[in-house]
């Protein structure tokens, strides 16, 4: 992706967050220049990859497979000094965008429609070899539990949520003609390096073409503290 495309995506998400009345923590507004001056008192943000994020799953087609997100809080399964057992994210998808099919080995999460249009989440149980199971899926949504056939698409309108358990394959996209969506994610600790199992082998972070200065640094770009 071009840096100019990333900058625009982040600004679009900022506008959506504001429109939904959601307030971000101070570190989300740090400029690249400010980050170069931050000391070790901000290491929790660096070590746990808090802040702005962009994924195109390494496919180079952000407008179809990809979205913008912010990690607001997170623990760290690899560093004992970080004792939080939970994480929270915001995800922003425009119409036409989607998340690739995947499950998590360990993480359980709630995906919540925080505002905007409707989100469509497709679910499959996984077999032992990582294929799609043809067994029914038990859906847990806002205090209700019910069974659906494999591959069912669950629609979340604003305010609704679904619980995603480990080994439950899921992808999601915006329902056409309903507008962009701001999603919340409340989960166990997030570990993007080891805990994602994609149905088709893909990447995570985009390759960036620097055609203009960054508006915000992404969570994998922070300079080390001096």
UniProtKB/TrEMBL annotation:
This enzyme catalyses: D-lyxose = D-xylulose
Instruction: Extract the Pfam families matched here.
Output: Lyx_isomer
First-level EC class: isomerase
Q: Which is an annotated GO molecular function term of this record?
A: metal ion binding
Q: Which UniProt keywords apply?
A: Carbohydrate metabolism, Isomerase, Manganese, Metal-binding
**Coiled coil residues, start to end:** none
Which cofactors does this gene product need? Mn(2+)
Indicate whether Magnesium appears among the record's keywords. no
The secretion signal range is none
Gene3D superfamilies tied to this protein? Jelly Rolls
EC numbers on record: 5.3.1.15
Q: What top-level branch of life does the organism fall under?
A: Bacteria
Q: Which family is annotated?
A: Belongs to the D-lyxose ketol-isomerase family.
Q: What is this protein called?
A: D-lyxose ketol-isomerase
Protein source organism: Lacrimispora amygdalina
Species lineage:
Bacteria, Bacillati, Bacillota, Clostridia, Lachnospirales
